Amino acid sequence: MELTGDDLGWNDLGQMPNEPARQQAEIAERLALAREEAAPVAGRKAFTLRLDPARHLALRLACAVRGQSAQAFVTEALDAMLATAPVAAALPKARRGRGRKD
């Protein structure tokens, strides 16, 4: 039995119509990245952040535009703020000097 281009699923341009497969692979990659971000890491602490509805919506929209989780977005923002606060940045160093582990 001889297979033709039509039998193989090729279109008239000689290309395989891969759009659904490409989309599935992209979704799978995004899910894998989200799982990595959500996976508990030794030494991490959790806390609850309560936001009013307007801030919550703004956070969700910003995360969607950047393609980033809220965890990553808030952590990045916190790191940027702490970098501008010399007292807050010095605290972990002072704690290490007293023999404690972070």
Would you kindly provide a written description of the structure presented here, covering whatever features stand out?
The chain has helices at 19-38, 53-66, 70-83, 86-97. With 102 residues, it is mostly helical. The N and C termini lie far apart (68 Å).
Catalogue the unreliable spans: none
Q: Return the average pLDDT rounded to an integer.
A: 75
Gross morphology:
elongated
Percentage of residues assigned to helices = 55-70%
Q: Order of SSEs, N→C?
A: HHHH
H/I helix tally:
4
Largest sheet: none
Count of strand segments: 0
Radius of gyration: 24 Å
Strand composition percent: under 5%
Give the N-terminus to C-terminus distance in angstroms. Answer: 68 Å
Structural class: mainly alpha
Keywords:
102 residues; mainly alpha; 4 helices
Short structural summary:
The protein is an all-alpha fold and 102 residues long. The chain has helices at 19-38, 53-66, 70-83, 86-97. Helix content is 59%, strand content 0%.
